Fold each of these.
Amino acid sequence: MANYLSLHGTGLFGMIVSRNGMDNGGNQTRREQWILYNKLVLVLTDEDLTQMLETKKADDSPESLIRQKIEDFRLGV
Protein backbone atom coordinates (compact mmCIF):
# COMPACT_ATOMS: atom_id res chain seq x y z
CA MET A 1 0.00 0.00 0.00
CA ALA A 2 2.80 2.41 0.84
CA ASN A 3 3.90 2.36 -2.80
CA TYR A 4 0.66 4.19 -3.70
CA LEU A 5 1.12 6.94 -1.11
CA SER A 6 2.86 10.04 -2.43
CA LEU A 7 2.72 13.80 -2.09
CA HIS A 8 1.69 14.18 -5.73
CA GLY A 9 -0.91 11.40 -5.66
CA THR A 10 -3.21 10.16 -2.97
CA GLY A 11 -1.27 11.76 -0.11
CA LEU A 12 0.77 10.19 2.65
CA PHE A 13 -2.05 8.69 4.71
CA GLY A 14 -3.78 5.36 4.15
CA MET A 15 -5.98 2.91 6.02
CA ILE A 16 -6.11 -0.86 5.90
CA VAL A 17 -9.12 -2.72 7.27
CA SER A 18 -8.22 -6.24 8.35
CA ARG A 19 -10.17 -8.83 10.27
CA ASN A 20 -7.05 -9.99 12.13
CA GLY A 21 -5.13 -6.75 12.49
CA MET A 22 -1.42 -6.61 11.69
CA ASP A 23 1.36 -9.03 12.61
CA ASN A 24 4.77 -7.97 13.95
CA GLY A 25 6.33 -7.76 10.50
CA GLY A 26 3.52 -5.54 9.27
CA ASN A 27 3.81 -3.28 12.28
CA GLN A 28 7.57 -2.98 11.74
CA THR A 29 6.99 -2.00 8.10
CA ARG A 30 4.42 0.60 9.16
CA ARG A 31 6.94 2.12 11.59
CA GLU A 32 9.63 2.19 8.90
CA GLN A 33 7.29 3.89 6.44
CA TRP A 34 6.48 6.52 9.04
CA ILE A 35 10.07 7.15 10.14
CA LEU A 36 11.73 7.05 6.71
CA TYR A 37 9.05 8.42 4.38
CA ASN A 38 6.47 10.20 6.59
CA LYS A 39 3.80 7.80 5.33
CA LEU A 40 1.15 6.92 7.89
CA VAL A 41 -0.71 3.65 7.42
CA LEU A 42 -3.47 2.99 9.92
CA VAL A 43 -4.88 -0.50 10.50
CA LEU A 44 -8.50 -0.92 11.57
CA THR A 45 -10.08 -4.18 12.72
CA ASP A 46 -13.66 -5.41 12.82
CA GLU A 47 -13.81 -4.32 16.43
CA ASP A 48 -12.73 -0.80 15.48
CA LEU A 49 -15.45 -0.57 12.84
CA THR A 50 -18.05 -1.89 15.28
CA GLN A 51 -16.96 0.68 17.85
CA MET A 52 -17.19 3.45 15.25
CA LEU A 53 -20.73 2.37 14.31
CA GLU A 54 -21.78 2.24 17.96
CA THR A 55 -20.25 5.67 18.54
CA LYS A 56 -22.17 7.11 15.59
CA LYS A 57 -25.34 5.42 16.80
CA ALA A 58 -24.88 7.23 20.13
CA ASP A 59 -24.69 10.57 18.24
CA ASP A 60 -20.99 10.96 18.92
CA SER A 61 -18.01 11.38 16.62
CA PRO A 62 -16.76 8.04 15.17
CA GLU A 63 -13.67 9.70 13.74
CA SER A 64 -12.42 10.15 17.29
CA LEU A 65 -11.34 6.49 17.18
CA ILE A 66 -9.20 7.23 14.12
CA ARG A 67 -7.64 10.23 15.85
CA GLN A 68 -6.90 8.07 18.89
CA LYS A 69 -5.31 5.31 16.78
CA ILE A 70 -3.12 7.90 15.03
CA GLU A 71 -2.04 9.33 18.37
CA ASP A 72 -1.34 5.86 19.80
CA PHE A 73 0.74 4.94 16.75
CA ARG A 74 2.77 8.12 16.81
CA LEU A 75 3.44 7.85 20.55
CA GLY A 76 4.41 4.19 20.16
CA VAL A 77 7.09 4.84 17.56
Note: The longest strand covers residues 13-17.
Amino acid sequence: MIEPQIVQVPEKRLVGAHLSMSFTNFRIAELWQSFIPKKHLITMAAGTDMISMAIYKPDHFAQFNPANEFEKWAAIEVTSFENIPDGLSSFTVPAGLYAVFHYTGLNTDNSIYQYIFSSWLPTSGYELDQRPHFEVLGEKYKNNDPNSEEDIYIPVRAAN
Protein backbone atom coordinates (compact mmCIF):
# COMPACT_ATOMS: atom_id res chain seq x y z
CA MET A 1 0.00 0.00 0.00
CA ILE A 2 1.06 3.64 0.40
CA GLU A 3 4.20 4.56 2.32
CA PRO A 4 3.99 8.01 3.91
CA GLN A 5 6.54 10.78 4.06
CA ILE A 6 7.43 11.69 7.65
CA VAL A 7 7.64 15.49 7.80
CA GLN A 8 7.99 18.22 10.39
CA VAL A 9 5.05 20.58 9.80
CA PRO A 10 5.33 24.15 11.06
CA GLU A 11 2.53 25.79 13.02
CA LYS A 12 -0.50 26.52 10.82
CA ARG A 13 -3.12 29.22 11.32
CA LEU A 14 -6.55 28.25 10.05
CA VAL A 15 -9.82 30.10 9.62
CA GLY A 16 -12.99 28.16 8.99
CA ALA A 17 -16.18 26.61 10.26
CA HIS A 18 -16.44 23.72 12.71
CA LEU A 19 -19.04 21.27 13.99
CA SER A 20 -19.15 18.50 16.55
CA MET A 21 -19.93 15.15 14.93
CA SER A 22 -19.28 11.42 15.08
CA PHE A 23 -18.83 8.78 12.40
CA THR A 24 -22.42 7.63 13.04
CA ASN A 25 -23.67 11.25 12.80
CA PHE A 26 -21.27 12.48 10.11
CA ARG A 27 -22.35 16.06 9.33
CA ILE A 28 -19.59 16.78 6.80
CA ALA A 29 -21.89 18.06 4.03
CA GLU A 30 -23.53 20.47 6.49
CA LEU A 31 -20.09 21.69 7.60
CA TRP A 32 -18.78 22.39 4.10
CA GLN A 33 -22.09 23.98 3.05
CA SER A 34 -21.71 26.44 5.94
CA PHE A 35 -18.07 27.22 5.05
CA ILE A 36 -17.89 27.48 1.24
CA PRO A 37 -20.19 30.55 0.88
CA LYS A 38 -17.98 32.45 3.38
CA LYS A 39 -14.58 31.26 2.10
CA HIS A 40 -14.18 34.19 -0.32
CA LEU A 41 -14.56 36.65 2.60
CA ILE A 42 -11.28 35.47 4.15
CA THR A 43 -8.81 38.16 3.13
CA MET A 44 -5.60 36.79 4.70
CA ALA A 45 -5.53 33.42 2.83
CA ALA A 46 -2.09 31.83 2.56
CA GLY A 47 -3.08 29.89 -0.58
CA THR A 48 -5.98 28.21 -2.33
CA ASP A 49 -5.83 24.76 -0.67
CA MET A 50 -8.70 23.85 1.63
CA ILE A 51 -8.14 21.97 4.89
CA SER A 52 -10.41 19.32 6.38
CA MET A 53 -9.33 18.91 10.01
CA ALA A 54 -10.43 16.68 12.88
CA ILE A 55 -9.69 17.17 16.57
CA TYR A 56 -10.11 13.93 18.51
CA LYS A 57 -10.23 13.36 22.26
CA PRO A 58 -7.13 11.61 23.68
CA ASP A 59 -8.84 8.21 23.99
CA HIS A 60 -10.74 8.39 20.67
CA PHE A 61 -8.72 5.68 18.92
CA ALA A 62 -7.76 3.67 22.02
CA GLN A 63 -11.45 3.14 22.80
CA PHE A 64 -12.80 3.52 19.28
CA ASN A 65 -16.55 3.71 18.90
CA PRO A 66 -18.14 5.22 15.76
CA ALA A 67 -20.52 7.18 18.02
CA ASN A 68 -17.64 9.03 19.78
CA GLU A 69 -17.82 12.73 19.01
CA PHE A 70 -15.00 14.84 17.63
CA GLU A 71 -14.67 18.35 16.23
CA LYS A 72 -14.43 18.64 12.45
CA TRP A 73 -13.27 21.77 10.61
CA ALA A 74 -13.56 23.07 7.03
CA ALA A 75 -10.90 25.75 6.71
CA ILE A 76 -8.10 27.44 4.83
CA GLU A 77 -4.66 28.43 6.02
CA VAL A 78 -4.14 32.15 6.66
CA THR A 79 -1.16 34.41 7.23
CA SER A 80 -2.81 36.17 10.18
CA PHE A 81 -6.00 36.19 12.19
CA GLU A 82 -6.94 39.75 11.17
CA ASN A 83 -10.42 40.36 9.75
CA ILE A 84 -12.01 36.97 10.48
CA PRO A 85 -15.44 36.99 8.79
CA ASP A 86 -18.55 36.69 10.97
CA GLY A 87 -19.58 33.10 11.52
CA LEU A 88 -16.05 31.72 11.09
CA SER A 89 -13.45 30.86 13.75
CA SER A 90 -9.68 30.65 14.05
CA PHE A 91 -7.51 27.72 15.12
CA THR A 92 -3.75 27.27 15.45
CA VAL A 93 -2.43 23.81 14.59
CA PRO A 94 0.74 23.26 16.64
CA ALA A 95 3.95 22.36 14.84
CA GLY A 96 4.90 18.71 14.91
CA LEU A 97 5.77 15.50 13.14
CA TYR A 98 3.25 14.09 10.66
CA ALA A 99 2.99 10.99 8.49
CA VAL A 100 1.72 12.30 5.15
CA PHE A 101 -0.11 9.89 2.87
CA HIS A 102 -0.80 10.95 -0.72
CA TYR A 103 -4.19 9.43 -1.52
CA THR A 104 -6.00 9.06 -4.84
CA GLY A 105 -9.62 7.91 -4.78
CA LEU A 106 -13.07 8.60 -3.46
CA ASN A 107 -13.28 10.54 -0.20
CA THR A 108 -16.00 8.12 0.90
CA ASP A 109 -13.60 5.12 0.71
CA ASN A 110 -12.36 4.53 4.26
CA SER A 111 -9.89 1.76 3.31
CA ILE A 112 -6.95 4.22 3.44
CA TYR A 113 -7.71 4.96 7.10
CA GLN A 114 -8.12 1.25 7.87
CA TYR A 115 -4.68 0.70 6.31
CA ILE A 116 -3.09 3.61 8.22
CA PHE A 117 -4.42 2.65 11.65
CA SER A 118 -4.52 -1.16 11.34
CA SER A 119 -1.49 -1.95 9.16
CA TRP A 120 0.95 0.93 8.81
CA LEU A 121 0.91 2.54 12.28
CA PRO A 122 1.39 -0.63 14.41
CA THR A 123 4.57 -1.57 12.49
CA SER A 124 5.89 1.92 11.70
CA GLY A 125 7.96 2.75 14.80
CA TYR A 126 5.59 5.67 15.41
CA GLU A 127 2.51 6.20 17.55
CA LEU A 128 -0.32 8.71 17.31
CA ASP A 129 0.37 12.10 18.83
CA GLN A 130 -2.41 14.19 20.40
CA ARG A 131 -2.65 16.90 17.74
CA PRO A 132 -5.19 17.56 14.99
CA HIS A 133 -5.44 15.25 11.99
CA PHE A 134 -6.04 16.97 8.66
CA GLU A 135 -6.31 16.56 4.91
CA VAL A 136 -5.03 19.11 2.41
CA LEU A 137 -7.47 19.42 -0.47
CA GLY A 138 -5.44 21.01 -3.26
CA GLU A 139 -5.85 21.60 -6.99
CA LYS A 140 -6.26 17.89 -7.77
CA TYR A 141 -9.02 17.35 -5.19
CA LYS A 142 -12.39 16.64 -6.79
CA ASN A 143 -15.27 15.78 -4.45
CA ASN A 144 -16.86 12.38 -5.22
CA ASP A 145 -14.39 11.62 -8.05
CA PRO A 146 -12.35 8.37 -8.08
CA ASN A 147 -9.39 10.32 -9.53
CA SER A 148 -9.43 12.89 -6.73
CA GLU A 149 -6.11 13.48 -4.91
CA GLU A 150 -5.46 14.71 -1.39
CA ASP A 151 -2.75 14.56 1.26
CA ILE A 152 -3.67 12.98 4.60
CA TYR A 153 -1.70 14.23 7.63
CA ILE A 154 -1.60 11.92 10.68
CA PRO A 155 0.14 13.36 13.79
CA VAL A 156 2.88 10.99 14.99
CA ARG A 157 5.78 10.76 17.42
CA ALA A 158 8.48 8.17 17.83
CA ALA A 159 7.14 5.10 19.65
CA ASN A 160 8.56 4.44 23.10
Note: The radius of gyration is 15 Å.
Amino acid sequence: MMKWLFAPEHAHWLTLGAAVAWALLKALILLVAGLKLAAWLAKLAGKTMQRTRMEITIVQFLQRVILTVLQIVLLLAVVQLLGVPMTSMLALLGAAGLAIGLALKDSLSNIASGVMLVALRPIKVGDVVTIHAVTGTVEAINIFQTRLRGSDNQTITLPNSLITTDSIINLTPDTMRRIELVIGIDYGDDIDVARATALEVIHADARVLSKPTPDVLVYELADSSVKLGIRCYAGNADYFGTKCDLTENIKKAFDRNGIRVPFPQHVVHVNPGSNKTIRLTAPDQG
Protein backbone atom coordinates (compact mmCIF):
# COMPACT_ATOMS: atom_id res chain seq x y z
CA MET A 1 0.00 0.00 0.00
CA MET A 2 2.77 2.45 0.91
CA LYS A 3 4.63 1.60 -2.33
CA TRP A 4 1.44 2.39 -4.29
CA LEU A 5 1.10 5.76 -2.62
CA PHE A 6 4.65 6.80 -3.32
CA ALA A 7 4.75 5.47 -6.85
CA PRO A 8 5.94 8.09 -9.40
CA GLU A 9 2.56 8.23 -11.15
CA HIS A 10 0.92 9.21 -7.86
CA ALA A 11 3.46 11.78 -6.77
CA HIS A 12 1.52 14.74 -8.20
CA TRP A 13 -1.53 13.77 -6.15
CA LEU A 14 0.56 13.74 -3.01
CA THR A 15 2.03 17.12 -3.90
CA LEU A 16 -1.41 18.53 -4.61
CA GLY A 17 -2.80 17.12 -1.38
CA ALA A 18 0.06 18.54 0.62
CA ALA A 19 -0.41 21.95 -1.03
CA VAL A 20 -4.15 21.93 -0.26
CA ALA A 21 -3.54 20.86 3.34
CA TRP A 22 -0.92 23.57 3.79
CA ALA A 23 -3.28 26.19 2.29
CA LEU A 24 -6.10 25.09 4.59
CA LEU A 25 -3.79 25.16 7.60
CA LYS A 26 -2.60 28.68 6.75
CA ALA A 27 -6.20 29.82 6.22
CA LEU A 28 -7.23 28.34 9.56
CA ILE A 29 -4.32 29.99 11.37
CA LEU A 30 -5.13 33.30 9.71
CA LEU A 31 -8.82 32.97 10.62
CA VAL A 32 -8.20 32.19 14.29
CA ALA A 33 -5.49 34.82 14.71
CA GLY A 34 -7.46 37.34 12.69
CA LEU A 35 -10.60 36.94 14.79
CA LYS A 36 -8.61 37.54 17.96
CA LEU A 37 -6.81 40.51 16.41
CA ALA A 38 -10.10 42.00 15.16
CA ALA A 39 -11.66 41.70 18.62
CA TRP A 40 -8.55 43.29 20.19
CA LEU A 41 -8.49 46.17 17.69
CA ALA A 42 -12.21 46.84 18.16
CA LYS A 43 -11.76 46.84 21.95
CA LEU A 44 -8.73 49.14 21.63
CA ALA A 45 -10.72 51.51 19.42
CA GLY A 46 -13.50 51.54 22.02
CA LYS A 47 -11.10 52.40 24.83
CA THR A 48 -9.51 55.14 22.72
CA MET A 49 -12.89 56.69 22.00
CA GLN A 50 -13.80 56.52 25.69
CA ARG A 51 -10.62 58.41 26.58
CA THR A 52 -11.80 61.23 24.31
CA ARG A 53 -14.93 61.40 26.49
CA MET A 54 -17.13 60.32 23.60
CA GLU A 55 -20.64 59.30 24.64
CA ILE A 56 -20.85 55.62 25.59
CA THR A 57 -23.78 55.03 23.20
CA ILE A 58 -21.69 56.09 20.20
CA VAL A 59 -18.65 54.20 21.48
CA GLN A 60 -20.55 50.92 21.76
CA PHE A 61 -22.15 51.31 18.34
CA LEU A 62 -18.92 52.24 16.53
CA GLN A 63 -17.04 49.45 18.29
CA ARG A 64 -19.48 46.87 16.92
CA VAL A 65 -19.32 48.42 13.45
CA ILE A 66 -15.50 48.29 13.50
CA LEU A 67 -15.55 44.65 14.62
CA THR A 68 -18.00 43.70 11.84
CA VAL A 69 -15.93 45.47 9.15
CA LEU A 70 -12.70 43.82 10.35
CA GLN A 71 -14.36 40.40 10.30
CA ILE A 72 -15.57 40.94 6.72
CA VAL A 73 -12.06 42.01 5.62
CA LEU A 74 -10.63 38.95 7.38
CA LEU A 75 -13.08 36.67 5.58
CA LEU A 76 -12.04 38.10 2.21
CA ALA A 77 -8.36 37.62 3.10
CA VAL A 78 -8.95 33.98 4.06
CA VAL A 79 -10.83 33.31 0.83
CA GLN A 80 -8.02 34.89 -1.20
CA LEU A 81 -5.44 32.82 0.66
CA LEU A 82 -7.32 29.70 -0.40
CA GLY A 83 -6.76 30.71 -4.01
CA VAL A 84 -10.25 31.91 -4.92
CA PRO A 85 -9.93 34.71 -7.57
CA MET A 86 -10.87 38.00 -5.92
CA THR A 87 -12.62 39.34 -9.04
CA SER A 88 -14.93 36.35 -9.15
CA MET A 89 -15.38 36.60 -5.40
CA LEU A 90 -16.40 40.26 -5.55
CA ALA A 91 -18.83 39.55 -8.39
CA LEU A 92 -20.32 36.70 -6.38
CA LEU A 93 -20.55 38.89 -3.27
CA GLY A 94 -22.25 41.62 -5.29
CA ALA A 95 -24.88 39.24 -6.61
CA ALA A 96 -25.32 37.66 -3.20
CA GLY A 97 -25.50 41.08 -1.58
CA LEU A 98 -28.34 42.12 -3.87
CA ALA A 99 -30.28 38.95 -3.14
CA ILE A 100 -29.61 39.19 0.57
CA GLY A 101 -30.55 42.87 0.58
CA LEU A 102 -33.93 42.10 -0.96
CA ALA A 103 -34.51 39.22 1.42
CA LEU A 104 -33.35 41.12 4.50
CA LYS A 105 -34.80 44.54 3.79
CA ASP A 106 -36.20 44.71 7.33
CA SER A 107 -32.76 44.02 8.76
CA LEU A 108 -31.25 46.74 6.58
CA SER A 109 -33.96 49.05 7.88
CA ASN A 110 -32.85 48.18 11.41
CA ILE A 111 -29.25 49.06 10.51
CA ALA A 112 -30.31 52.43 9.08
CA SER A 113 -32.45 53.07 12.16
CA GLY A 114 -29.51 52.18 14.41
CA VAL A 115 -27.37 54.77 12.64
CA MET A 116 -30.15 57.34 13.11
CA LEU A 117 -30.41 56.57 16.81
CA VAL A 118 -26.68 57.07 17.27
CA ALA A 119 -26.53 60.18 15.09
CA LEU A 120 -29.66 61.97 16.34
CA ARG A 121 -29.37 60.64 19.91
CA PRO A 122 -33.02 60.76 21.03
CA ILE A 123 -31.94 58.14 23.58
CA LYS A 124 -28.60 57.03 24.99
CA VAL A 125 -27.24 54.33 27.26
CA GLY A 126 -28.49 54.86 30.80
CA ASP A 127 -31.70 56.69 29.84
CA VAL A 128 -35.03 55.51 31.22
CA VAL A 129 -37.45 55.44 28.29
CA THR A 130 -40.93 54.31 27.31
CA ILE A 131 -41.10 52.93 23.78
CA HIS A 132 -44.02 51.02 22.29
CA ALA A 133 -45.68 50.87 25.75
CA VAL A 134 -42.49 49.31 27.21
CA THR A 135 -40.46 51.08 29.91
CA GLY A 136 -36.86 50.29 30.77
CA THR A 137 -33.29 51.54 31.04
CA VAL A 138 -31.28 51.60 27.80
CA GLU A 139 -28.37 49.16 28.10
CA ALA A 140 -27.07 49.04 24.52
CA ILE A 141 -27.90 50.29 21.02
CA ASN A 142 -26.66 47.59 18.65
CA ILE A 143 -26.57 47.47 14.87
CA PHE A 144 -29.92 45.68 14.58
CA GLN A 145 -31.56 45.95 18.00
CA THR A 146 -31.69 48.06 21.14
CA ARG A 147 -31.63 46.36 24.53
CA LEU A 148 -33.50 47.68 27.56
CA ARG A 149 -33.49 46.53 31.18
CA GLY A 150 -37.01 46.50 32.63
CA SER A 151 -37.98 47.46 36.16
CA ASP A 152 -38.35 43.76 37.05
CA ASN A 153 -34.83 43.09 35.69
CA GLN A 154 -36.16 41.51 32.52
CA THR A 155 -34.25 41.98 29.26
CA ILE A 156 -36.28 43.81 26.60
CA THR A 157 -35.04 43.73 23.00
CA LEU A 158 -36.61 46.07 20.45
CA PRO A 159 -35.83 46.28 16.70
CA ASN A 160 -34.24 49.63 15.87
CA SER A 161 -36.79 50.31 13.12
CA LEU A 162 -39.62 50.01 15.65
CA ILE A 163 -38.00 52.66 17.84
CA THR A 164 -37.55 55.23 15.08
CA THR A 165 -41.11 54.79 13.81
CA ASP A 166 -42.77 54.90 17.24
CA SER A 167 -43.04 57.62 19.86
CA ILE A 168 -40.16 57.82 22.33
CA ILE A 169 -40.79 59.07 25.85
CA ASN A 170 -37.45 59.83 27.46
CA LEU A 171 -37.86 60.12 31.22
CA THR A 172 -34.25 61.03 31.93
CA PRO A 173 -33.31 64.39 30.30
CA ASP A 174 -34.25 66.33 33.45
CA THR A 175 -33.15 65.52 36.97
CA MET A 176 -36.70 65.43 38.32
CA ARG A 177 -40.14 64.06 37.46
CA ARG A 178 -43.61 65.21 38.40
CA ILE A 179 -45.71 62.99 40.64
CA GLU A 180 -49.41 63.31 39.96
CA LEU A 181 -52.04 61.59 42.10
CA VAL A 182 -55.75 61.82 41.37
CA ILE A 183 -57.74 61.00 44.52
CA GLY A 184 -61.48 61.44 44.95
CA ILE A 185 -63.10 62.66 48.16
CA ASP A 186 -66.74 62.66 49.24
CA TYR A 187 -68.93 65.67 48.38
CA GLY A 188 -69.63 66.11 52.08
CA ASP A 189 -65.94 66.52 52.96
CA ASP A 190 -64.19 69.87 53.25
CA ILE A 191 -61.92 70.50 50.25
CA ASP A 192 -59.68 72.88 52.20
CA VAL A 193 -59.12 70.29 54.94
CA ALA A 194 -58.32 67.62 52.33
CA ARG A 195 -55.91 69.98 50.60
CA ALA A 196 -54.13 70.90 53.84
CA THR A 197 -53.91 67.24 54.83
CA ALA A 198 -52.37 66.21 51.50
CA LEU A 199 -49.88 69.08 51.57
CA GLU A 200 -48.85 68.20 55.10
CA VAL A 201 -48.02 64.65 53.99
CA ILE A 202 -46.12 65.95 50.95
CA HIS A 203 -44.01 68.42 52.94
CA ALA A 204 -43.17 65.72 55.49
CA ASP A 205 -41.46 63.61 52.80
CA ALA A 206 -37.85 64.71 52.40
CA ARG A 207 -37.67 63.29 48.87
CA VAL A 208 -40.26 65.78 47.57
CA LEU A 209 -38.60 68.85 46.02
CA SER A 210 -39.60 72.29 47.26
CA LYS A 211 -39.34 73.77 43.77
CA PRO A 212 -41.63 73.67 41.84
CA THR A 213 -44.05 74.17 44.72
CA PRO A 214 -46.39 71.22 45.42
CA ASP A 215 -50.07 71.95 44.92
CA VAL A 216 -53.50 70.34 45.29
CA LEU A 217 -56.16 71.29 42.75
CA VAL A 218 -59.77 70.33 42.11
CA TYR A 219 -59.62 68.40 38.86
CA GLU A 220 -63.24 67.42 38.43
CA LEU A 221 -66.67 67.41 40.05
CA ALA A 222 -67.43 63.80 39.20
CA ASP A 223 -70.75 61.99 39.62
CA SER A 224 -70.11 60.86 43.19
CA SER A 225 -66.77 62.38 44.20
CA VAL A 226 -64.65 65.49 44.04
CA LYS A 227 -61.44 64.50 42.27
CA LEU A 228 -58.33 66.21 43.60
CA GLY A 229 -55.12 66.49 41.60
CA ILE A 230 -52.16 66.22 43.98
CA ARG A 231 -48.94 67.29 42.25
CA CYS A 232 -45.31 67.53 43.34
CA TYR A 233 -41.81 66.78 42.04
CA ALA A 234 -39.12 64.28 43.03
CA GLY A 235 -35.75 63.24 41.68
CA ASN A 236 -35.66 60.60 38.94
CA ALA A 237 -34.20 57.98 41.26
CA ASP A 238 -36.86 58.64 43.94
CA TYR A 239 -39.88 58.87 41.64
CA PHE A 240 -41.49 55.45 42.02
CA GLY A 241 -40.88 54.98 45.74
CA THR A 242 -42.04 58.49 46.56
CA LYS A 243 -45.22 58.09 44.54
CA CYS A 244 -46.14 54.85 46.27
CA ASP A 245 -45.39 56.20 49.75
CA LEU A 246 -47.37 59.39 49.16
CA THR A 247 -50.38 57.41 47.95
CA GLU A 248 -50.34 55.29 51.11
CA ASN A 249 -49.63 58.12 53.54
CA ILE A 250 -52.28 60.44 52.08
CA LYS A 251 -54.88 57.69 52.39
CA LYS A 252 -53.92 57.12 56.05
CA ALA A 253 -53.99 60.89 56.74
CA PHE A 254 -57.42 61.19 55.14
CA ASP A 255 -58.67 58.35 57.37
CA ARG A 256 -57.33 60.10 60.49
CA ASN A 257 -59.08 63.35 59.52
CA GLY A 258 -62.39 61.71 58.60
CA ILE A 259 -62.07 62.36 54.86
CA ARG A 260 -63.71 59.56 52.90
CA VAL A 261 -62.37 58.21 49.62
CA PRO A 262 -65.47 56.91 47.79
CA PHE A 263 -65.38 53.50 46.14
CA PRO A 264 -67.65 51.75 43.59
CA GLN A 265 -70.73 50.28 45.21
CA HIS A 266 -74.27 49.09 44.46
CA VAL A 267 -77.20 51.05 45.89
CA VAL A 268 -80.52 49.19 46.17
CA HIS A 269 -83.78 51.19 46.39
CA VAL A 270 -86.96 49.31 47.35
CA ASN A 271 -90.24 50.85 46.18
CA PRO A 272 -92.81 50.55 49.05
CA GLY A 273 -95.96 48.65 48.06
CA SER A 274 -94.27 47.02 45.08
CA ASN A 275 -92.50 43.73 44.61
CA LYS A 276 -90.05 45.34 42.19
CA THR A 277 -86.52 46.12 43.24
CA ILE A 278 -84.63 48.88 41.42
CA ARG A 279 -80.86 48.44 41.29
CA LEU A 280 -78.65 51.41 40.50
CA THR A 281 -74.94 51.01 40.00
CA ALA A 282 -72.83 53.93 41.09
CA PRO A 283 -70.16 54.90 38.53
CA ASP A 284 -66.47 54.77 39.24
CA GLN A 285 -65.97 57.07 42.20
CA GLY A 286 -62.20 56.90 42.58
Note: The longest strand covers residues 176-185.
